[in-house]
Design a protein that fits this description.
about 550 residues; alpha/beta; Rossmann fold; GMP Synthetase, Chain A, domain 3; nine-stranded mixed β-sheet; 25 strands; about 35% helix
Length: about 550
């Protein structure tokens, strides 16, 4: 089913009239790049590089191969690959064949994959046979009896077990370009159909399956192009996971201007720096945790990073001091973006913004996106006041796949009048720049005073010993709640409680916001996307520690 849940004809006409959408599809852009830049590199990974004409040819082969396997237009395929280039090739091939594509992260196992395949009614899966000691093909075969429509198993790599087909075989099977065009004629999704499903991190239960239409992906990518002044001459290092929002969003930006995109099969801080040096990366797309690790685990002076002109990252756990440190050490400009799987990136700072705005805010909403901040009664607050952040626009999702009820709950209504409630708290400054305050449900209320964890986390991350920080509320009989700082530190480093408090006081943090507990962690529990802290799991861990400590103290 490629029909979007909440996009209707009125909404399509509305964004076409405003100039944010048009009838140009993803395959149209690929055809253009292949004709204009046929011999220029499009996609580079550790195994090699592919030109734009080569990418067009290979995606045609794969698209024909999928159809020849018996997969029909509007059916679904799930691709769980650790290699970004394979994911992107399959995504483009599926779009070309009219097959809905979903890219779950490698952290998903039986329960999540069963849920996704059932929800999408997927008829095919693509996995490695094994990766990092996990038998992904075995997982698929284990859950297959529960999935009556799952008939096709494609395996990447050289070891192809009985009952599976080779993805490599699809790429290597010659298909005449003319024959491919004839077979694929009228198959590709138009810009207003759902062509892929992205997945929420999921703090509870199973991940949500979130629709994305071609027009919204193109609109979101165009916003990044404009704010970063991205051109065909740029060389993009896209190290953010393509199974999540940031990696794909930056891909669609580079894709539109025909820029070369370089990926890594496995993140490592030094590996990123070597990639920048080798490929002369000009634009680096990374999630905040990746940048923090690069800053704290490497010596940047050992690498030639002079080609780099901009780093784009998200707002999560990335305050102005950390952004300024990144600019100074990389000698480039940093752009901060805000978004979610449901909203794409709805805002981003621009390369020409004053440094204070560029590093300390999310910039302004992208063209084609609207942002409003409301109070508990649904009334818009005045500038400078904090409230709930809601978003709608040309780059937002078309809803939850095959779930109109959940879509209606999230957006309020179908069509162009719907607003997506992000669950974030934010405010506009007097110049219209957007500032995040944190998640509404994460607020700690201590003696009637609100404490925003993100503010404290941002300061903690600037401490030279700290590599990760999460601040949670724990129950207190007198104050209601108190703040507990949970941190990971650099290897062999210790952060005493008094040192943390002294550091935060030095940052000017109000006394009532100072954490009253410090818990040191080896690592944080992660949500399924592997990018965000699972705060609910963390809270359970800390409460269990406190209960255990109390029992020991009582016994003694």
């Amino acid at each position: 089913m490629a029909k979007p849940t909440r996009i209707d004809r009125e909404l399509i006409d509305h964004y076409i009239k405003l100039g944010y959408w048009d009838h140009r599809g993803i395959q149209d852009i690929l055809d253009y790049n292949a004709s204009q830049y046929p011999d220029q590199a499009a996609l580079v990974d550790p195994e090699g590089r592919m030109t734009w004409s080569g990418l067009n040819r290979i995606t045609g082969r794969v698209a024909v191969g999928l159809l020849n396997m018996g997969i029909k237009r509007d059916q679904s395929i799930v691709v769980q690959s650790p290699f970004p280039s394979i994911s992107l090739i399959l995504l483009l091939a599926c779009q070309r064949a009219g097959i809905l594509c979903c890219l779950p992260p490698m952290t998903f196992r039986q329960n999540e994959m069963r849920h996704i395949i059932k929800t999408l009614e997927a008829v095919a899966v693509v996995t490695p046979f094994e990766h990092r000691n996990v038998n992904y093909y075995g997982i698929m075969k284990e859950i297959a009896p529960d999935l009556t429509g799952l008939n096709h198993f494609l395996v990447t790599g050289d070891h192809i077990p009985g009952g599976a087909s080779s993805f490599k075989g699809l790429i290597e099977t010659p298909v005449d370009d003319t024959d491919a065009r004839d077979i694929l004629r009228d198959k590709a999704f138009d810009p207003f159909e759902v062509f892929m499903v992205v997945l929420s991190s999921g703090t509870t239960g199973m991940p949500k399956c979130i629709e994305q239409a071609g027009a919204s992906s193109i609109a979101g990518g165009r916003g990044i192009v404009q704010r970063a002044k991205l051109t065909q001459r740029d060389i993009v290092g896209d190290i953010a996971p393509v199974s999540g929002g940031p990696g794909l969003q930056n891909w669609w930006a580079a894709f539109q201007v025909g820029a070369k995109v370089c990926t890594l099969n496995r993140f490592s801080p030094e590996g990123v720096l070597r990639l920048i040096e080798k490929e002369k990366i000009t634009y680096l797309a990374a999630v905040p945790t990746q940048i923090v690790r690069i800053l704290k685990e490497t010596d940047l002076k050992r690498f030639d990073l002079r080609s780099l002109r901009v780093i784009r990252t998200g707002a999560s756990s990335f305050d102005m001091a950390l952004a300024r440190e990144t600019e100074e050490k990389f000698n480039c400009r940093v752009l901060i973006a805000g978004g979610s799987q449901e909203t794409y990136s709805f805002a981003q700072s621009a390369i020409d913004d004053p440094q204070e705005k560029r590093l300390g805010t999310l910039g302004k909403p992208f063209p084609g996106n609207e942002v409003r901040i409301i109070d508990d009664n649904g009334i818009e607050v005045t500038r400078g006041e904090t409230g709930r952040l809601q978003v709608r626009g040309a780059s937002t999702s078309s809803g939850y796949y095959n779930d109109p009820e959940a879509t209606l709950r999230a957006w309020g209504t179908f069509g162009k009048e719907g607003w997506y409630d992000t669950g974030d708290l934010a405010r506009f400054d007097n110049e219209g720049y957007l500032l995040l305050r944190g998640r509404e449900k994460e607020i700690i209320i201590r003696g009637g005073q609100n404490i925003y964890p993100k503010e404290i986390e941002d300061y903690l991350l600037t401490h030279p010993k700290v590599t990760g920080a999460a601040v949670i509320g724990v129950p207190d009989q007198v104050m209601g709640e108190r703040a507990c700082a949970c941190v990971t530190t650099r290897r062999d480093e210790d952060l005493p409680f008094d040192e943390m408090i002294s550091f935060l006081k030095g940052k000017g943090l109000a006394v009532y916001k100072l954490p009253e507990m410090l818990e040191k962690m080896e690592k944080f529990p992660q949500l399924a996307d592997g990018q965000k802290v699972d705060r609910e799991a963390l809270e359970r861990m800390i409460l269990e520690r406190l209960h255990s400590d109390a029992e020991i103290e009582k016994a003694s």
